[in-house]
């Protein structure tokens, strides 16, 4: 408070010494002091270029090129979302930037950031993990901010230790501690300010990378939830920024021991969907609440975090959505596109989940009251809208509006060490501001009201897009309504001309989100609108969408989509497992076996051990044991040196009652991998 008042006096003295002309004046506002969490009435903000040049009493008047009458409205610093994935959230995770360069696709992706964040007042975002081929593109965005896009700061890829499995495109493996140090040095040389250490990083690799980051001046953000490194250990290694409030639980409980106990307490099974995983993270806080010893451990961790100045991001709307507690559904994963969580709980279990969520929010309030520095990190698609939902969730948990707005602004900027230029409204800081039509101090739901957003000293004007809005109309109103809306929108002067890249991205999002009928409709509109342009669908997207339909039992839709993909995307390779499944679906097991035998060495087919193994278990879980055995046998033919394929076939034979064949395959699995504890256990039983 004293700091801002002194700045006001200084600005008055400077201005009274001579006439000054400013580029933008925002007059007669209530100014939110993010440090003191108070509101200063009757203020005017004077902006020169992209910088706040003066703050005066509203009674003082100077010349400005443009004036916005605040009319006693509240003005706050721009919001900061400290955990986003700007590439993966738009369906680009498995693609390189080369796939987007045509038709201004890179520019289109950056414009999406404005639609998803800046439209809602989020003026700065921290990207917490992307495929490394995108670093040059997003680093260029970081170095060259514009008034039409949120500021972006990147971490590069999410660091994990070497594992014998396929990694997501944004997970970057380090082979050993020295390789981890080399990776830190290489990121520093490229100009990155941040790195993310992910939960699958083993302790020696984690410790080495945290140590090297200190030497290189890189800020580490850490997601720890695999019982490899705890938050307390991370703090001891010098890490202070941790991701997701729910990751507190594995820092006080060993999941191998307590996850089964938690499931037993609530009568639930291990998660089969990403939303069930998020819900189980909520259940864990009810589990902690039920045991004073576990609660005491949690409070001890809060005390250590507060004492050491550690920060913790929220991801609150995602877990609230899984528990049915948010006004706006979001998830950690976009596939399949949906508006409700993929969970299946009894009425009694839902009541227990409601109670556990109340505990989750109460613990967040206790952490804050103990001095743990909270910041908002939405980690989901549509992060800007989810951000506003998190503000309302904080209020429901008993946080004051002043605390909430501080968490949304200064706390995040301080954690990311960006508060020298942003996070408070002060002379000399960048003019990234939000002017609310309705005051959130009167009602927190007013964060949803219309806002005037100032970015880099200029009033931001949200853009409309036929291509992007078509997606929403198709999903909400159906295919025929979407087609009609598209034709009408093209004649509407409020929309700019439809762009190739935007319409192409809508097709991609719908396909990768599992909305096949809507995607086909959008594709047909794309081909009609741009007959000379090419849209390609790769084999990964086709396969993921197909398996989504298989799991949901949408087999007629699957047949339509698969035939459409074969006809329209002939250059895409074929995953062997899916091809075999379609042959069995169309005819019988023999047809699937014949297709496998004929194409096992065909370069147009992708023969992937994990895919075949997963398909075998899909059959096994559906009590189609003959099909499962056939698939597992194909996998052995393709990967005869893999222990896991024999383990899976042994399980299928055991399910079928063929104990001798089961024993034979488990013995083979154990011979290939003497550490296979599952095989040892089953053989002992046999």
TrEMBL record:
InterPro entries for the chain: Amidohydro-rel, Metal-dep_hydrolase_composite, Metal_Hydrolase, Metallo-dep_Hydrolase, TPR-like_helical_dom_sf, TPR_2, TPR_rpt
Protein name: Amidohydrolase family protein
Database matches in PANTHER family: ALPHA-D-RIBOSE 1-METHYLPHOSPHONATE 5-TRIPHOSPHATE DIPHOSPHATASE
Molecular-function annotations in GO: hydrolase activity, acting on carbon-nitrogen (but not peptide) bonds
Residue ranges occupied by any Amidohydrolase-related domain in the UniProt entry: 74-450
Annotated keywords: Hydrolase, Repeat, Signal, TPR repeat
Annotated signal peptide: 1-21
TPR repeat copies, ranges: 609-642, 643-676
Keyword presence, Metal-binding: no
């Amino acid at each position: 408070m004293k700091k801002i008042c002194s700045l006001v006096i200084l600005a008055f003295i400077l201005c009274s010494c001579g006439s000054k002309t400013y580029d933008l004046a925002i007059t007669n506002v209530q100014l939110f002091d993010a440090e003191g969490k108070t509101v200063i009435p009757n203020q005017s903000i004077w902006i020169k270029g992209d910088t706040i040049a003066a703050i005066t009493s509203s009674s003082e008047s100077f010349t400005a090129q443009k004036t916005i009458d605040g009319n006693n409205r509240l003005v706050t610093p721009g919001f900061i979302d400290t955990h986003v994935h700007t590439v993966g959230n738009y369906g680009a995770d498995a693609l390189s930037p080369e796939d987007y360069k045509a038709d201004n696709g890179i520019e289109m992706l950056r414009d999406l950031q404005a639609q998803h964040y800046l439209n809602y007042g989020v003026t700065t975002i921290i990207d917490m993990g992307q495929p490394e081929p995108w670093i040059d593109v997003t680093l260029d965005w970081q170095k060259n901010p514009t008034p039409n896009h949120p500021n972006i700061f990147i971490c590069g890829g999410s660091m994990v230790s070497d594992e014998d499995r396929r990694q997501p495109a944004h997970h970057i493996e380090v082979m050993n501690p020295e390789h981890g140090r080399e990776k830190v040095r290489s990121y520093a040389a490229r100009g990155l300010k941040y790195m993310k250490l992910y939960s699958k990083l083993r302790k020696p690799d984690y410790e080495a990378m945290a140590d090297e980051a200190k030497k290189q001046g890189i800020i580490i953000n850490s997601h720890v939830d695999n019982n490899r490194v705890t938050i307390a250990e991370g703090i001891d290694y010098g890490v202070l920024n941790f991701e997701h409030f729910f990751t507190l639980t594995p820092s006080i409980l060993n999941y191998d021991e307590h996850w089964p106990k938690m499931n037993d307490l609530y009568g639930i099974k291990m998660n089969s969907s990403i939303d069930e995983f998020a819900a189980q993270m909520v259940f864990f806080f009810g589990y902690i609440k039920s045991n004073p010893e576990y609660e005491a451990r949690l409070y001890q961790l809060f005390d250590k975090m507060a004492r050491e100045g550690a920060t913790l991001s929220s991801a609150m709307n995602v877990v609230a959505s899984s528990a049915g507690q948010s006004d706006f559904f979001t998830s950690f994963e976009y596939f399949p596109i949906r508006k409700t969580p993929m969970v299946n709980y009894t009425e009694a279990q839902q009541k227990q989940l409601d109670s556990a969520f109340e505990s989750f929010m109460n613990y967040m309030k206790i952490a804050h009251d103990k001095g743990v520095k909270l910041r908002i990190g939405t980690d989901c698609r549509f992060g800007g809208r989810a951000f506003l939902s998190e503000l309302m969730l904080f209020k429901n948990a008993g946080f004051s509006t002043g605390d909430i707005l501080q968490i949304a602004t200064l706390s995040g900027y301080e954690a990311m060490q960006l508060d020298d230029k942003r996070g408070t409204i002060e002379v000399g800081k960048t003019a990234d501001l939000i002017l609310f039509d309705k005051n959130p101090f009167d009602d927190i739901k007013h964060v949803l009201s219309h806002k005037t957003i100032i970015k880099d000293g200029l009033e931001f004007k949200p853009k409309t897009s036929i291509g992007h809005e078509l997606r929403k109309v198709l999903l909400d109103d159906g295919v025929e309504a979407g087609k009609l809306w598209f034709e009408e929108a093209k004649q509407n002067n409020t929309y700019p001309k439809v762009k190739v890249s935007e319409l192409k991205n809508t097709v991609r999002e719908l396909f990768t989100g599992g909305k096949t009928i809507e995607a086909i409709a959008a594709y047909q509109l794309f081909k009609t609108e741009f007959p000379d342009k090419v849209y390609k669908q790769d084999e990964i997207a086709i396969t993921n969408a197909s398996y989504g339909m298989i799991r949901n039992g949408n087999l007629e839709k699957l047949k339509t989509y698969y035939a459409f993909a074969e006809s329209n995307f002939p250059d895409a390779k074929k995953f062997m497992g899916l091809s075999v499944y379609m042959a069995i679906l169309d005819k019988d097991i023999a047809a699937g076996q014949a297709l496998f035998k004929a194409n096992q060495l065909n370069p147009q087919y992708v023969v992937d051990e994990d895919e075949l193994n997963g398909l075998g278990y899909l059959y096994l879980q559906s009590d189609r044991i003959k099909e499962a055995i056939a698939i597992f046998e194909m996998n052995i033919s393709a990967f005869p040196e893999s222990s896991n394929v024999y383990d899976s076939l042994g399980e299928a034979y055991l399910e079928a009652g063929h104990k001798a064949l089961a024993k034979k395959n488990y013995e083979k699995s154990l011979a290939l991998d003497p550490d296979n504890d599952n095989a040892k256990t089953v053989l002992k039983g046999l």
